[in-house]
Amino acid sequence: MMRGVERGPERQPDRRGELDAVRALVVVGLVLFHAALVFDARDDFYVKNAETTELTTFVVAPVVVCAMPLLFAIAGIGAWHSLRSRGPGGFVRERLLRIGVPLLVALVLLLPVPQFLRARAEGTWTGSYLAFWLRFFDVRFQPGDVPFVLDGEHFETGHLWFLVLLLTWALVLAALVRLVPDDVARRARGRLARAVGARGAVLAPAVVVGVVCAAHELEEGFAAWSRWGYLLFFLGGFVLASDARFRSAVRRDAALAGLVGLGAFAVGMVLFLGPAGEVDAFTGREAGAVVFRFLYGVAGWCWVVGLLGLLDRWGARRRTAAAAPAAEVALGATSTSRGAAVAVRPWRGRAWAYLGAAVLPLYVLHQPVVVAVAYPVVGWELPAPAKYVVIVVASLGALLAVYDLLVRRTRVTRVLLGMRA
């Protein structure tokens, strides 16, 4: 018997295409971001250009505050619907197949590549790739860093920390759903849903996120966020999807959330450039660093709520606009402009469907591809901006080619990279 979440129908007709779109945009943005790290003076990226800059930190700061938290929140929204249709057991099986399998495949086939190229670039490894591959898996158990319990001289989870955390939090959620009685879950959800009827109440969890960030360090290896903060965003997305009143509150308070987040971010950046910047703002225990992390967490939650609300409004307008021409055609309208609008939408739909299905494979593949492309390019006699453009364009082209030609066309490769068979 499933507990904590009422069982619903298998089919979910109201799929939110705007969330698929933003997931695709974030993954494309990660290519731009990781290509920029090649030229960043602060980050210890796998391959570095001789000429670096500190500008990257300030350019990407607003994106870092909300991009990965938004992905975790969207994953939480999806988890609600998956749990309703499959139950905890089916949800766990589906997550192990869709996340666990590509994680293991990438761990064996892809993750050693960036570390190998780093060692070659630094001159610390001159042997073969096969010898390095074997050394990569020389690991030891470290139970104190859950869920990253394996460590080694070269071993790492790399950019797949996202999948490790996502799978871990999904298993935690399934256990909670199994343990919490249905009536308790319904009552708690009902109270929360009534509470968000008040203007701005949906922003209250920002305080909890801020406290967690202040108490726990922001981990640069996890896109400058706390792993426990990501858990809150994942659970937050799950709760927001559980009642239509939450969705209405998010739409209603989207602008307010954006403004509050902007204020928290602005004050936080003042601290980052001032007292918090004089110490380690991400890990320090001085007052300036703690307040900075609190505001960072507040800004993150507010901006995620704001983005979800604005995306929902945009998606609603698109669905309304798509329905109107179809209704006109059904009534016999023959306007050329209306017919063109009807004709163009299927193409858009196919494009978004293509990118939506590609999100997980592209995420898994993107960082090894960026590093492999950057490895020779940094040695070219070109200005840094030109190198950056070459790395981005070549990486995106290679990613799409690998995905389209080697991943999506066979059942085996689709399953291995987390797609539906």
UniProtKB/TrEMBL annotation:
Keywords (A to Z) from UniProt: Membrane, Transmembrane, Transmembrane helix
Domain of life of the organism in this record?
Bacteria
Membrane as UniProt keyword:
yes
> Which Pfam families does UniProt cross-reference here?
Acyl_transf_3
**Spans through the membrane:** 21-39, 59-83, 95-117, 160-180, 201-218, 224-242, 254-274, 294-311, 352-376, 388-407
- Every copy of the Acyltransferase domain together lies at 18-402
Q: Name one GO molecular function term.
A: acyltransferase activity, transferring groups other than amino-acyl groups
Recorded protein name is Acyltransferase 3 domain-containing protein
What organism does this protein naturally occur in? Cellulosimicrobium cellulans F16
Q: What is this organism's lineage? A: Bacteria, Bacillati, Actinomycetota, Actinomycetes, Micrococcales
